[in-house]
Amino acid sequence: MKISDRAVLAQLANDHGIHFMHEVRDASRFAQDAQATLTTTGSAGVLSMFTTYVDPKTIDVLFAPMRATEIFGEVKMGDWLTTAAEFPIAEQTGTTSAYGDFNENGNASANFNYESRQQFVFQTMLELGEREVAMASAGRLDLVSQVQGAATNTINRFQNKTYFYGVSGLKNYGMLNDPSLYDAITPKTVNGETTWENKDSVAVFNDIALLVKQVIAQNNGNVDISSRFTLGVSPTTEGFLNSTINSYGVNALAELQSRYKGLRVVSAPEYSTDAGELIQLIADDIMGQETGSCAFSEKLRNHAVVIGSSNYKQKKSAGTWGAIIKQPSAIAQMLGV
């Protein structure tokens, strides 16, 4: 018996269920349609949607960090109905004279003044439609939480911006543009170079030591090297602080924190300016009085949800006073590092 014998193969299939699928059958045994061409489009495979993997975790786009409150801290002042704030300033005055039983010379008094600031109340809106939420859900996207988060993030980012720059057109200033700030000094020139990119750690240390000297001089002894300091730098400048190594294997930051025990560094993108890299050295307080603070009236106010026929919207608002600098002499700046 030959396995190629079709009758034998058919008998095996019929009696024992053994099939030789590789056996090529005579074409004459297949149905022959009268029409030789396809009536449908040629197959291109299954739809790609059936072979596509969708990651269940959404990747959020990252934004620049918000660091203003790390530099100055944050306080609440008033509420959203408050339009202005007044800060009383008291200065004690006095004179003396030689003593005499019948002399009434000399004088002790106090002078008062007020510094004012204006509040800026701002808002954003979120809107969502029923169909767009459902369609996003079908695409495995949580649109509602993303839009809610976007509204909060937008409010916080603008708040952070006002802490650095204030609000134009109002008596509302930031820690970088308050008119009471002392003019920025220039870094030392070493071998014809002023920027930290071209300096070693000794030169970088000397630039910051110059800022410390400036703050001490501006406060006539109320600040010294044991005071608590905050050094505000940009991310680029912070990199030079850490990567610049001297011949003893010590970077500038380690040497600074060894010399000035109360020094801390905060990095914020806002210190990279169009005029160059800016750094600020801030004495955190003078004789127990804080140098400044970031101030808000309302951090976040959620207004009523307005429901439409197939959508809804909501307003969110907040209020800012910018940065309130109480001791301008406690801040020294250097531009062009």
Word description of this protein:
The chain has 337 residues and is an alpha+beta fold. It has one domain (64-90, 112-337): 2-Layer Sandwich (hypothetical protein PF0899 fold), CATH 3.30.2320. Helices cover 25% and strands 29% of the residues. The chain has 7 helices and 13 strands. The protein has helices spanning 6-16, 68-72, 130-138, 143-165, 201-218, 235-243, 252-259; strands spanning 74-76, 84-95, 107-118, 120-129, 229-233, 263-267, 272-273, 276-283, 285-286, 289-290, 292-307, 311-325, 331-335. The strands form 4 sheets. Strands 5, 6, 7, 8 and 13 form a 5-stranded mixed sheet that branches. Strands 1-11-12-4 form a 4-stranded mixed sheet. Helix 5 (201-218) runs parallel beside helix 7 (252-259). The mean pLDDT is 89.
Could you give a quick summary of the protein structure above?
The protein has helices spanning 6-16, 68-72, 130-138, 143-165, 201-218, 235-243, 252-259, and strands at residues 74-76, 84-95, 107-118, 120-129, 229-233, 263-267, 272-273, 276-283, 285-286, 289-290, 292-307, 311-325, 331-335.
